[in-house]
Structures are given as structure tokens and as C-alpha cells.
């Protein structure tokens, strides 16, 4: 059974949001070289669009991969590190963690903890979406795009069972199969 998708954030709204986030980051970092760290898989589309809008020097782009959902619609509560960074890569560098959605906060908090252990000069978080109704762990978001309702979301890199990442807008999902 295919789930019913309902448009939540259009392509145009996403583009405006990404542009606004990039302007704020450009203002705060000005001429500082910046390292971007994206969380796979969900943030890769947002990371690419954001990076193209930045005018500050992007020194490097790195990716980490975490998982707490698997094929479920709810977090398992356990965050697995599937891809990490080499040690000391971020030492004394300004770092911006780029996240698609802060939901429970578990994965984002884990990512921030991992990056902080590398002793960056600064560490900030940019999230396209925030779903505060599901928060289990407090997370400070320095650059936030949109707050979304407590519904399952897909599109613009965000998936359900590896599907729907390709959608150019963000949708809520209705009639999902129950988690096994």
C-alpha cells in the first residue's frame, strides 16, 4: 500500500529558506574558512543547496552517517555511527554541522558530541527542519529553517524506507504501515 503524501513545504519555500539560512551564515562567518559537516543520508540535498549559496570560504565538506530509525517511522532510541570522521580533522577549525531535521534530538546530539571531541574552534548547528514535539534530548539550533508539526516527513533528501528522497518538496506522509 502506497502512503498518501500531502505537500507541507514547496520547492519555492525551501529555496527561500535555504537562501535565508545562507545569508545568516555568510553574515556570521564573513571571511572565515568554514568546514561543513553533513549528516547522511537525509541532509545531503540540503547540504548541497546550502553550500552553493554560501559566499564564505568553504575549506572542506565532510560527511558522517548516523542511524536511529532504520526502516521504522519512530526512532529506536539508539544511535548507531555508520561513518565517522578521521581524528583531529576539525581541530581548531570553525565547523558547521548541517542536519536535515532535528526530531528526537538523539542523532543530532550524538553528532555534536562526536564533533566537539575533535576540539573545533567553534561548532554550530544548521537544521532545515525542527520537530520540537518529538524532542527527547535538548538541542540548540543556531540556524533554523522551519518548524514542522509532529508528522512523518519525506522529500528533499528525507526518506521512508529509502524511498521519497528524490522529491523536490517536503511532504507529510499519511497512512503509513505500522512499525514492525
Automatic annotation (TrEMBL):
EC number: 2.4.2.8
Catalyzed reactions: GMP + diphosphate = guanine + 5-phospho-alpha-D-ribose 1-diphosphate; IMP + diphosphate = hypoxanthine + 5-phospho-alpha-D-ribose 1-diphosphate
Record's keyword annotation contains Metal-binding: yes
GO BP annotations, alphabetical order: GMP biosynthetic process; IMP biosynthetic process; purine ribonucleoside salvage
Cofactor(s) needed: Mg(2+)
Keyword Magnesium: yes
Subcellular location, record wording: Cytoplasm
UniProt cross-references to SUPFAM superfamilies, sorted A to Z: PRTase-like
Pfam families hit by this protein: Pribosyltran
Main location: cytoplasm
UniProt KW keywords: Cytoplasm, Glycosyltransferase, Magnesium, Metal-binding, Nucleotide-binding, Purine salvage, Transferase
Domain of life: Bacteria
Pathway entry: Purine metabolism; GMP biosynthesis via salvage pathway; GMP from guanine: step 1/1; Purine metabolism; IMP biosynthesis via salvage pathway; IMP from hypoxanthine: step 1/1
One Gene Ontology cellular component annotation held by this UniProt entry: cytoplasm
Residue ranges of domain Phosphoribosyltransferase in the record: 12-159
GO molecular function: guanine phosphoribosyltransferase activity; hypoxanthine phosphoribosyltransferase activity; metal ion binding; nucleotide binding
Similarity-based family: Belongs to the purine/pyrimidine phosphoribosyltransferase family.
PANTHER family: HYPOXANTHINE PHOSPHORIBOSYLTRANSFERASE, HYPOXANTHINE-GUANINE PHOSPHORIBOSYLTRANSFERASE
NCBIfam families in alphabetical order: HGPRTase
Name of the featured protein: Hypoxanthine phosphoribosyltransferase
Organism: Lyngbya confervoides BDU141951
Lineage of producing organism: Bacteria, Bacillati, Cyanobacteriota, Cyanophyceae, Oscillatoriophycideae
Amino acid at each position: 500500500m502506497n502512503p498518501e503524501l500531502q505537500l507541507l513545504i514547496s520547492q519555492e519555500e525551501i529555496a527561500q529558506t535555504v537562501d535565508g539560512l545562507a545569508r545568516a551564515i555568510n553574515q556570521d562567518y564573513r571571511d572565515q574558512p568554514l568546514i561543513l559537516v553533513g549528516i547522511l543520508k537525509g541532509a545531503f540535498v540540503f547540504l548541497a543547496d546550502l553550500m552553493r549559496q554560501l559566499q564564505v570560504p568553504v575549506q572542506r565538506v565532510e560527511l558522517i552517517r548516523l542511524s536511529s530509525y532504520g526502516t521504522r517511522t519512530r526512532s529506536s532510541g539508539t544511535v548507531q555511527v555508520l561513518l565517522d570522521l578521521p581524528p583531529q580533522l576539525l581541530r581548531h577549525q570553525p565547523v558547521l554541522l548541517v542536519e536535515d531535521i532535528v526530531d528526537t534530538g538523539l542523532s543530532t546530539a550524538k553528532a555534536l558530541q562526536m564533533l566537539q571531541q575533535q576540539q573545533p574552534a567553534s561548532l554550530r548547528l544548521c537544521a532545515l527542519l525542527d520537530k520540537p514535539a518529538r524532542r527527547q534530548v535538548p538541542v540548540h539550533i543556531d540556524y533554523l529553517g522551519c518548524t514542522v508539526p509532529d508528522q512523518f516527513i519525506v522529500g528533499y533528501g528525507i526518506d521512508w524506507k529509502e524511498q521519497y528522497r528524490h522529491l523536490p518538496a517536503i511532504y507529510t506522509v499519511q497512512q503509513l504501515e505500522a512499525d514492525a
